[in-house]
Amino acid sequence: MVSQASRDKLILIGFMGTGKSSVSRLLADKLGWLRLDADEEIERAEGRTIPEIFASDGEEAFRAIESRVLAGLINRKEPIVIATGGGAVLREENREAMLGGGFVVALACSAERIIARVKADTERPLLQGDVESRVHALLEQRKGIYDFAHFSIDTTELTVEQVVENVLREW
Ligand code: S3P
């Protein structure tokens, strides 16, 4: 596919636990590009962890920081594979910045797989309590929100390698 999207940023979006981190790592390896993770950049910029930001300032404050950091990453001059946090798509300004700034790839996978992946990490502020019901509720709330991507792929039955091959073919 010949995409009209800007070609020097590959931006991965998708719900928590859909494989954005591992896919972005392999993509960056294959392309010889820098890989940056928006969540890590937020923690670096703030000097505190995401759970700390949520706990002391709340989700809206986190979203404002997230938007600022994401815009900064998209505006950088060098080619970058950017892994975003699962909620980075909630703000329209971010969706527009992503679409205008790079090739946006949405990773999806089954709720069961997501739950299996995120269960090990008890840190995610939005998944406190009963992880299964939190995941189902958030998936419902966010239904369709990732559909603006240039390319979407269901990773449930695929290896990381296969996902990367598919992305590079479509890009
Ligand atoms: C969030 C996803 C997290 C992180 C924060 C909020 C979300 O990133 O940004 O906990 O709202 O879906 P990952 O998708 O990398 O877990």
From TrEMBL:
Keyword Methyltransferase among UniProt keywords: no
PROSITE patterns attached to this UniProt entry: SHIKIMATE_KINASE (PS01128)
Cross-referenced Pfam families: SKI
GO cellular component entries: cytosol
EC number: 2.7.1.71
Binding positions for substrate per the UniProt entry: D39, R63, G86, R142
Subcellular location, record wording: Cytoplasm
CDD domains, sorted: SK
Keywords from the named record: Amino-acid biosynthesis, Aromatic amino acid biosynthesis, ATP-binding, Cytoplasm, Kinase, Magnesium, Metal-binding, Nucleotide-binding, Transferase
Binding site for ATP: G17, T18, G19, K20, S21, S22, R124
Entry superkingdom: Bacteria
Keyword Metal-binding found: yes
Chief location bin: cytoplasm
Residues noted as binding Mg(2+) in the record, renumbered to the chain: S21
Alphabetized InterPro entries for the sequence: P-loop_NTPase, Shikimate/glucono_kinase, Shikimate_kinase/TSH1, Shikimate_kinase_CS
Database matches in Gene3D superfamilies: P-loop containing nucleotide triphosphate hydrolases
Coiled-coil boundaries: none
Pathway(s) this gene product operates in, as recorded in its UniProt entry: Metabolic intermediate biosynthesis; chorismate biosynthesis; chorismate from D-erythrose 4-phosphate and phosphoenolpyruvate: step 5/7
Biological process per Gene Ontology, one example term: amino acid biosynthetic process
GO molecular function, one term: ATP binding
Catalysed reaction, written as an equation: shikimate + ATP = 3-phosphoshikimate + ADP + H(+)
Cofactor: Mg(2+)
Function text: Catalyzes the specific phosphorylation of the 3-hydroxyl group of shikimic acid using ATP as a cosubstrate.
Subunit structure: Monomer.
Name of the protein described by the UniProt record: Shikimate kinase
UniProt source species: Paenibacillus soyae
